[in-house]
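Shape matters. As here.
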Amino acid sequence: MKKVHFISGLPRSGSTLLAGILAQNPRFHAAMTSPVAALINGVLEQTGANSEFYSFFTSEKRKSLCKALFNSYYEDKLEHEVIFDTNRIWSARMHQLVELFGDFKLICCVRNPAWIMDSFEHIYRKNPFDYSRMYSPASRQTVYSRCEALVNGAGTVGSAWTALKEAYYGEFSDRLLLVDYDLLTQHPGRAIQLLYQFLNEPEFDHDFNNVEYQEESFDSLIGVKDLHTVKRKVEFSARRTILPPDLFTKYQDMDFWQDTAGTSANIIAPKKK
């Protein structure tokens, strides 16, 4: 394994689409969210101060275990020169990644949070008779309770949002590239060209009319059909939001990356009008 990079950012913002595009390059391995981050976290919990085995492990031994776990997971992908591991928690683990991998980059997919909430609600209404594991019975009741469940600190959107904010303003922000969903879908060629430049990789002729990716078995396990299905053609589809106006207004100003003060992150995103 010659190079390791990571994909993170906000949900419903194009990370699966980006992985599908990158996977066209035979030198790259990229896919949807992997379990590696959770496995590493489990190892550190089991060998940390709350464990009865704490005294058996030094910091170097814990680091070695984490690196070995990553390498073992991807040992069947060694024919690829570059591995992209995807997980939204990586944004909050930059201090670990620096120690484990040194010269890595973190690609973070972003989208205006109001449209993220709209996308989740759109998926929910497309599956009217499937009560997924995304919501508890109480939080499932209305669009207001569903949005609140997603955006709270432990929710799917809220946890990713705070993790991204940590990386964006952190000491390793220069390793960050934020890629806006709207620009990726409207101008995929230019966005991917800039991404390759950021990674210092030779350009590849991607086919943006034939990008396919799906994880039917994973989506069926959580009861959310087409959550990780990518359409063949990369294109932007404008539509009216299905959120009530007050909810849309509530979330649309959460795009903190529009303010570039206090960060060294690289950004491929339009300026807010």
